[in-house]
Amino acid sequence: MALKFKFIAEPRTVAIVSCPFRGGQTRLGVDQGPIHFIEAGLIGQLEELGWKVKFEGHLQFGEIDASTDPPIGVLKNPRLVSHSTEAVAKAVGKHAAQGELPLSLGGDHSLVSWHVYGVPKPQACPFRLSSLMEGVRGVM
């Protein structure tokens, strides 16, 4: 017997919000994580679990330009991060409003809270997969 979900419409759909973004920190490569999740077969794996999958491509973010977006204290690229987090919140909110389960694939952690912010309450049950492997040694 399939599980019934209060806020997820039938057919059960997971909407992937791919966020290849590194604007909030200086580590190179975290923006590639979401791309690698898709290339590694995430969509097929979700379908094998009985979910319909909606993937509309990777969100596009602006270019990092420190000359026009100087740090504010410890915040890096604050204007770019602000615009990017708003885009993530809107994308997540759109899918949640349609009764889909938002699954965001990150990028850097500056987007995390906005992923949750985009979900209407009380439906706040989004999922996020992070591409950061901070503190992990010898994994690959």
UniProtKB/TrEMBL annotation:
GO CC terms: cytosol; nucleus
Similarity section: Belongs to the arginase family.
Molecular function per GO: arginase activity; manganese ion binding
PANTHER family given in the database record: ARGINASE
Keywords: Hydrolase, Manganese, Metal-binding
Transferase as UniProt keyword: no
Name the record gives this protein: Arginase
